Amino acid sequence: MPFRRILLIDDDTEDHEIFKTALDLVSKTAECKTSTNAREALAMLISKQLNPDVIFLDLNMPIMSGQDFLREVKMRSETQHIPVIIISTSSHAATVKLMKEMGAMDFITKPDRFDKLVEILKPIITE
């Protein structure tokens, strides 16, 4: 199933631009909304102001961590159906295992090169 409506939650706005640029190379039809605040994004999801097909989620954020956000999303009936893909600088096996146990669909370690990000997104975001 191709994902067309994407929500990226990451406190780093530079990562937003890199992600959107990579996404534009992968898909001409995908739409990406971004948020720097997981708590605000959660409120918008609950109120149906946002209705993404998939959420890409950073873990290390102020105000509300990615782990806390994932827990909240997966315990609420109105949001638990939304696939969540963790995209983080972390790559510890225990963290990956925990996030998947908590309901994350996948875990991506942020690549150090732009072309690697494009390659990672291709099988997830398809035309």
TrEMBL record:
Pfam families: Response_reg. One of its GO terms (biological process) is phosphorelay signal transduction system. Residues 5-125 form the Response regulatory domain. PROSITE patterns: RESPONSE_REGULATORY. It comes from the Bacteria. Keywords: Phosphoprotein. The modification 4-aspartylphosphate is found at D58. The keyword Phosphoprotein applies. The keyword Nucleus does not apply. PANTHER family: RESPONSE REGULATOR RCP1, RESPONSE REGULATOR RCP1-RELATED. This is Response regulator. It comes from Pseudochryseolinea flava.
